[in-house]
């Protein structure tokens, strides 16, 4: 049995009914007291009650922190600033990025729509040299049969709306408090070597992400309006966002600590509440709060927590709103190009072992050490071009069995797993195959288990799969200057494993923390 | 028009629909993010959803802080430590207290039940010399027609379960944030001279109340068990408490800042989970958490947030549980005698202008200055004894019109107002009259208005009546030594005024803060 399996074999320790009852009721109270919350869905609460907008419920959380190898955790942290810079450099390399994106334009309307926004602004000319990235690199522990030590494999790299920094920090605090109560003589968990004297590492996600936004705000410089206007940051959000408290953790920090005004703006309100004066060639983005119509603000930074998915664009008006943001002088987090750099296709091109070496293009010549560090985190990925290795692996049911087929965007419910891949591919037109990426499945510890409290109060336990995300922020200029590059804070997300399929359940996912071993 | 009326005539400033919408939605978010919450009632949420124990909703709060005269606020703070000591001294004077309580024994089962607990422990002998009081003295601004300056009048003095310190601190923080956003250029409220550059004073209720409990914990000394046990504080609470987050603000502060273990214990679980070893004449109160049955704790301090009302005692078993606490070595907050010192009858005896001077009994001889300070806060109060002034005022509909009739316990729904008093008295047996106290009505500013957000999301506005509570803590020994005497933190509670009755609505009450003028 490999080391990772040994760790998970006895973990988590079994709870008595009284222990479980105590942990569950304490977590139910702690989450509401400390804003580790989401707005409840209209499932166990009536739509009528939800519509009043006053209720909160606990975010889904695990009762136990999950064990994670310290070496892998440190490795993930150590490469984050390299990844930050890599994705900044990819974003700056419009030619290279464009060539890859071109392949997707005729099969992916969303990618195509985004590219058109970039094209339009490029024609007019960009007025803002700076870009801000709030990134999250997601990993799994890879423990293939027969291997002695687990390795760290990247699942995906998020360049837009990287979420859960706010709530994740609170889960670490929750587990730390539970593990250390009472002070000096903790009694909340059954005795277990992994829990003895250990607490999750400090989670600085809120501080780090907010500091990134504050750095952009500061780098924007003085108002470009005349007469000059007060400056602000705008959070672009989805209407009816249930995960609002994750976002508020960042805006509160910006307001209360950095003393920067933050306004929330629904994607659907952008064209009504913002404007770019036609007479000002600097194109400042002016925001006028409806509750204070006599005071206008100039947005230094636009932080997108909406507009990341096709469902955010229901009409041309939404695309016009995105264009308004993109052509403005506000620093975008992210720009359209930076969003596109997060396409699965980009990761595949970098990680495809059968293609030319694209990675080196973005690294200092001869810096094979950095290239190796990044490559160690890659799982093999392939496109499905004719006569290519990827197509061969995908269509053969035996080799498909160790792979996952992913579309360009966020994983979860859209992925096709294992032996279902050949049949799925044959069911869609071959011309659409190029919008899919084949990735070798990461093999997480098969014995990992945990217990989770859902938002509706249900407690479930069983085998789980966990993903570790590392947050990073980078502010760069189109000429390649890096003004700010930080790593800090993390997310552990744990999903119930569907035993029959072997895939990851799309529906259920809990916030977790880590115990390093 | 008196000064107070002038202040309230234009306050609060009128909100546009957009301003109200912004304030309401911001408060809905802020409250859940920051634990300014209660568990929702089973009115707008189904009993089924409530039973899962995961939902929170905003505590009812005002949109605006309420104006309050700075001189009255300072006066209330200045007398708090004097009041703390007065009620400690009353509690120590068992003979005097007992004589007054005797009058109530045959008409008030609850008072009688409490006295029996004291009697039983007295016979056995008390083993704990120290008592802890967490008090709240409640006041209204008194603005009778024709008076130039408002004065401060005490509504009641609470000696048990003085609540809302936890949530009240957060309301002050909420209003302060709303008033100062964005930094340097606030825009959330319409312009008004009372709000210009002002925020509520700092509210240290959580720090002050927790420090009182911590002082008792420390004064308890080492474990009285052998072998010695780890020490803890116990919060005795009601099952299904909706106001739990108010209490958790204190226990979190004790755990996280003072590093003192705190356990919550339902009144109904006391006899199952605590014990006093018969073999130990020091009578330590031993608590064994059901989730960690191998670890027992010794309670230094028992803080009652239950057992304050007759409804907390449904059987002899509940009285036995109260007796178990009272006879133990734990420092009680409060003792039975301290709870009884909060009877309305005590306040009436102190404040009755037609009775002998009882107040001086508890003050240093010749200290007329202190006596005057306290007396200035008294509203005239009377008992209803035969041929007395109180009976005369109560039975005459003309004089009754400026009075309120109060039972021994918490006000609100049980009070009889104004012209309803004579009829009410004639409807009950004359022998029961002695359980009632007649109090001259305090006349709060008649033009005071505010807007409140209820827990179900409804927004209501109109004329209001506000009460200011000042928190204080005192730890004393039966021999008169004062180990700790502090004042700190406050509560502003604002109720809708029922215009037809002129009385205070029992049903609806919001947490508020103050703007001092």
From TrEMBL, chains A, B:
Residues that hold substrate according to the record: 136, 160-163, 241-243, 247, 305-308, 493, 504-505
Coiled-coil region: none
Top-level taxon of the source organism: Eukaryota
GO cellular component, one term: cytosol
Top EC group: ligase
Pathway per the UniProt entry: Sulfur metabolism; glutathione biosynthesis; glutathione from L-cysteine and L-glutamate: step 2/2
GO molecular function: ATP binding; glutathione binding; glutathione synthase activity; magnesium ion binding
InterPro entries: Glutathione_synthase, Glutathione_synthase_a-hlx, Glutathione_synthase_C_euk, Glutathione_synthase_N_euk, GSH-S_sub-bd_sf, GSH_synth_subst-bd, PreATP-grasp_dom_sf
Protein name: Glutathione synthetase
Species per Swiss-Prot/TrEMBL record: Talaromyces rugulosus
């Amino acid at each position: 049995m490999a080391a990772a399996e040994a760790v998970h074999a006895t973990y988590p320790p079994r709870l008595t009914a009284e222990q479980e009852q105590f942990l569950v009721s304490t977590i139910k109270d702690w989450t509401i007291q400390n804003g580790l919350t989401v707005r409840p869905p209209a499932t166990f609460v009536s739509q009528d009650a939800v519509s009043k907008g006053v209720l909160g419920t606990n975010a889904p959380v695990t009762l136990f922190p999950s064990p994670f190898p310290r070496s892998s955790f440190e490795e993930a942290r150590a490469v984050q600033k390299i990844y930050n810079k890599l994705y900044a450099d990819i974003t700056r390399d419009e030619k290279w990025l464009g060539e890859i994106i071109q392949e997707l334009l005729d099969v992916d309307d969303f990618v195509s729509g985004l590219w058109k926004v970039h094209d339009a602004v490029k024609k007019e000319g960009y007025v803002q040299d700076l870009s801000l990235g709030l990134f999250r690199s997601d990993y799994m522990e890879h423990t293939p049969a027969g291997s002695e030590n687990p390795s760290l494999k990247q699942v995906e790299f998020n360049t837009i709306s990287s979420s859960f920094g706010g709530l994740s920090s609170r889960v670490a605090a929750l587990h730390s408090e539970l593990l250390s109560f009472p002070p000096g003589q903790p009694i909340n968990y059954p005795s277990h070597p992994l829990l003895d004297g250990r607490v999750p590492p400090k989670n600085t996600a809120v501080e780090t992400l907010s500091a990134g936004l504050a750095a952009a705000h500061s780098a924007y410089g003085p108002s470009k309006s005349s007469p000059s206007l007060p400056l602000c940051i705008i959070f672009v959000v989805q209407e009816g966002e249930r995960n609002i408290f994750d976002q508020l953790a960042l805006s509160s920090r910006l307001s209360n600590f950095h003393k920067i005004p933050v306004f929330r703006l629904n994607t659907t309100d952008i064209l009504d509440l913002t404007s770019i004066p036609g007479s000002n060639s600097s194109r400042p983005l002016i925001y006028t709060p409806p509750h204070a119509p006599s005071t206008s603000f100039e947005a230094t930074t636009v932080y997108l927590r909406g507009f990341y998915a096709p469902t955010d664009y229901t009409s041309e008006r939404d695309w016009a709103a995105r264009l308004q943001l993109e052509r403005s002088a506000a620093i975008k987090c992210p720009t359209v190009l930076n969003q596109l750099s997060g396409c699965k296709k980009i990761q595949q091109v970098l990680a495809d072992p059968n293609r030319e070496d694209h990675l080196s293009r973005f690294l200092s010549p001869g810096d094979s050490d950095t290239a190796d560090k990044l490559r160690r985190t890659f799982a093999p990925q392939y496109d499905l071009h004719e006569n290519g290795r990827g197509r061969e692996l995908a269509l053969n049911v035996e080799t498909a069995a160790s792979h996952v087929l992913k579309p360009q965007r966020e994983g979860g419910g859209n992925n096709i797993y294992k032996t279902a891949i050949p049949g799925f591919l044959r069911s869609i037109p071959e011309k659409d195959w190029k919008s899919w990426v084949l990735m070798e499945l990461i093999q997480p510890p098969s014995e990992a288990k945990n217990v989770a409290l859902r938002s509706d109060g249900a407690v479930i336990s069983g085998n789980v799969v966990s993903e570790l995300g590392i947050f990073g922020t980078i502010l760069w200029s189109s000429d390649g200057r890096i003004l700010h590059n930080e790593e800090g804070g993390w997310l552990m997300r744990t999903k119930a494993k569907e035993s029959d399929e072997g895939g990851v359940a799309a529906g259920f996912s809990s916030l977790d923390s880590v115990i390093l071993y």
